[in-house]
Amino acid sequence: MLQLTEELEKARKAGGLSQEALATRAGLSRMTVQRIESGQIDPRLSTLLEMARVLGLELMPVPASLRPQLEDFVRSGGRLLGQPAGVGAPPSIAQSLADENR
């Protein structure tokens, strides 16, 4: 949970939002946002989802048993492990998404 709240805090700061601004947009108190970011409380999933929505993020629950494979997939740029880059290989999912956003 700590990693998730740290990521939400990074996204808030990167977006130039204060704790007060995030709280207002998410329908929370500034104190709640501060306590979540400092690890003083264990927030409800619905609270985290609302904070993520305001920050333009989408939370995706992943079973712990699949996390290592998902992290490997993301690090590989969206290619399946062992998939060669280059001719004949389909473009990575990550590259396709990046191209769409240009």
List keywords for this structure.
102 residues, mainly alpha, 434 Repressor (Amino-terminal Domain), 6 helices, 55% helix
Describe the structure in your own words.
This protein has 102 residues and is mainly α. The protein has one domain (1-81): Orthogonal Bundle (434 Repressor (Amino-terminal Domain)), CATH 1.10.260.40. Helices cover 55% and strands 0% of the residues. The protein contains six helices and no strands. Helix 2 (19-26) crosses helix 3 (30-37) and helix 2 crosses helix 4 (45-54). The model has no long low-confidence stretch (mean pLDDT 85). Keywords: DNA-binding. It comes from Variovorax boronicumulans. InterPro entries: Cro/C1-type_HTH, Lambda_DNA-bd_dom_sf, TransReg_Diox_bact_type. It holds the Pfam family HTH_3.
End-to-end CA span: 32 Å
Largest sheet: none
What is the strand content?
under 5%
Quickly count the domains: 1
What are the segments in which pLDDT stays under 50 over at least 5 consecutive residues?
none
Q: What CATH architecture do you see?
A: Orthogonal Bundle
Radius of gyration: 17 Å
Name the structural class. mainly alpha
Averaged pLDDT: 85
Q: How are helices and strands ordered from N to C? A: HHHHHH
Total helical elements: 6
CATH superfamily: lambda repressor-like DNA-binding domains
The helix fraction, in percent, is: 40-55%
| Subunit organisation of the chains | single chain
Quote the CATH topology.
434 Repressor (Amino-terminal Domain)
Organism: Variovorax boronicumulans
Domain HTH cro/C1-type: 8-59
Keywords: DNA-binding
Pfam families: HTH_3
